[in-house]
Design a protein that fits this description.
- It is a single chain.
- The chain is α+β, with helices and mostly antiparallel strands.
- The chain has a domain of 116 residues: Sandwich (Jelly Rolls).
- The chain contains twelve helices and eight strands.
- Strands 1, 2, 3, 4, 5, 6, 7 and 8 form an eight-stranded antiparallel sheet that branches.
- The longest helix has 18 residues.
- The relative contact order is 0.09.
Length: 317
């Protein structure tokens, strides 16, 4: 498992900012505007190489041009102005956006921008658990195909990205290889259900691989309603399949039932939160109920079966 990386640099020197940016993104040159406005540059990065989170805050104005390193990258603007253009194709940065490969021009103006990147090889390997092999010739987005599939998909990605940032910047949580593995798998699943990352039509069109498309819709629904009460008919309706069919195709493609998948995702979420929690402030019962586990005894047994320890051991470790 790769070692965890963590860096945080701050400067008010424009030339230093250009060099620091180039060190983080070797294919892109950044030029800070030489004007009378105060300038400040802060760049934070954390992750294990497979999954990296970047936070870039620029007070003032700067322009960049070049090519992003190979990989999957999703950006989000927290405040200020941040423009991205690939020739005449302008990316909509008002919502989370998938960064295509190729040369681009970027403009910062008093902006705070976050970026989540996934190593392409690791992402492709993990994605094969959820996508048919013949749909994976090249997992690279294209200009014009950068937006989330739906507003709900955009919200799902924001929630996942915030959780990733909170986890990788928590030294105790990110020290666990299991936590990093679960986090990476979660980000792969949310990415696949939030963006049109597989070449061709979105999986939602229901034409290329109907069964896999139904599973994808079911997974998207379950991920979006992870902390809510969900019934099997709800999942079947979201998947556009019968109750019997959704159970059959889910077992075939995912290896479990829809509600079994939901339970496992909830257990994963509980574990991530327990690892990052202070036992003097938070109780296991509070976290369990927040993720939909009302029967604490059954929850504890399911948690032990999945992780080999009881939740009280996790929060105290």
């Amino acid at each position: 498992m790769p070692a965890v990386q963590r860096r945080d640099v701050v400067t008010s020197d424009r030339e230093d900012a250009n060099e620091l940016f180039r060190a983080a993104f070797p294919g892109i040159s950044l030029v800070a505007a030489e004007d009378d406005r105060p300038f400040r540059f802060r760049h934070s990065v954390a992750g294990d190489g497979r999954l990296m989170t970047y936070s870039l805050v620029i007070a003032g104005s700067a322009t960049g041009h070049g090519t992003m390193p190979e990989g999957i990258a999703v950006g989000g603007v927290r405040r200020g102005r941040f423009d991205v253009a690939y020739g005449h194709d302008v990316v909509d940065t008002a919502r989370p956006y998938l960064r295509p490969p190729g040369e681009s021009t970027i403009v910062f103006d008093d902006a705070h921008v976050d970026l989540v990147t996934l190593d392409l090889e690791a992402f492709s390997a993990a994605a094969r658990r959820y996508v048919d092999d013949d749909r994976l010739p090249s997992l690279l987005p294209r200009p014009g195909r950068t937006a989330p599939l739906t507003p709900a998909a955009a919200r799902s990605w924001r929630i996942a990205a915030d959780r990733a940032l909170a986890t990788v910047t928590d030294e105790e949580a990110v020290a666990s290889a299991l936590v990093r593995e679960r986090l990476f798998d979660m980000m792969v699943r949310v990415l696949l259900t939030s963006f049109e990352i597989v070449p061709g039509r979105p999986w939602d069109d229901g034409s290329a691989v109907p069964a896999a498309s139904g599973v994808r819709r079911a997974i998207a629904y379950l991920d979006e309603h992870i902390a809510e009460h969900v019934t099997l008919p709800d999942v079947a309706e979201a998947a556009r399949l019968s109750v019997r069919s959704v159970q059959h195709v889910f077992r075939r493609h995912v290896g479990t039932t829809p509600l079994g998948y939901l339970r496992d995702r909830r257990l994963d979420a509980v574990r991530l939160e327990l690892i990052a929690s202070d036992p003097a402030v938070v109780t296991v019962a509070e976290v369990a109920r927040r993720w939909g586990f009302a029967h604490l005894s059954r929850f504890s047994q399911a948690y032990h079966a999945r992780f080999g320890e009881y939740p009280r051991m996790t929060i105290r470790s």
